[in-house]
Amino acid sequence: MAMDLLKWTKNLKPKFPAIIEKFWGKVIGKEVKENEEVGLVPSVNISEEQKAYEVSVAVPGLDKKDIKIEVQDGYLRIYSEKQYQNEEREKNWLRREFGYACFQRIFQIPESADPDKVEASLKNGVLSIKIAKKKGYESSVKKIAVK
């Protein structure tokens, strides 16, 4: 049983500003207007291995401290909020830049997953999460013959 992505509504839609897309001026086939916010959801790969479920999330530019992971009531929630500021001062000028980025992904975990055995690591912009399977769990699969 693989993990299912929750259907999200307008108020849950995550936003992840894409500086590169703003630079090139396009997002999924449309022009980006000046001061328009570009919202993206990080790419996710999910696989079911023999002893665990593995989730890989593309989070380039984020540090461990920027990412939060929760397992609650049968759901895996991955989210991030990051604010940044940059200030440069020279002789007679000042340049300040600031911004805010956030995203959220929520997945329903299967009954065979053990919510108490979750591990996460971050390397080269990829967040890897492993959720161990419960020992001795037997999934009930009923095969149906096609007539």
Description of the structure:
The protein is mainly beta and 147 residues long. It contains one helix and ten strands. The strands form three sheets. The protein has a four-stranded antiparallel sheet, with no helix packed on it. Strands 4-5-10-9 form a four-stranded antiparallel sheet, with no helix packed on it. The protein has a two-stranded antiparallel ribbon with strand order 2-3. The protein starts with a strand and ends in a 14-residue tail after the last strand.
Short characterization:
By secondary structure, the chain is mostly beta strands. The protein is 4% helix and 50% strand. A 4-stranded antiparallel β-sheet has the order 1-8-7-6, with no helix packed on it.
Helix-strand pattern: EHEEEEEEEEE
**Rg value:** 20 Å
The strand count comes to 10
Q: Order of strands across the widest beta sheet?
A: 1-8-7-6
Secondary-structure class = mainly beta
Number of separate structural domains: 1
Strand content: over 45%
Q: What's the level 1 CATH class?
A: Mainly Beta
Gross CATH architecture: Sandwich
Which features would summarize this protein structure in a list?
single chain, 147 residues, mainly beta, Immunoglobulin-like, four-stranded antiparallel sheet, 1 helix
List the SSEs and their pairings.
Layout: E1 4-5, H1 19-24, E2 26-27, E3 30-31, E4 44-48, E5 52-58, E6 67-72, E7 75-89, E8 94-108, E9 113-123, E10 126-133
Antiparallel strand pairs: 1-8, 2-3, 4-5, 5-10, 6-7, 7-8, 9-10
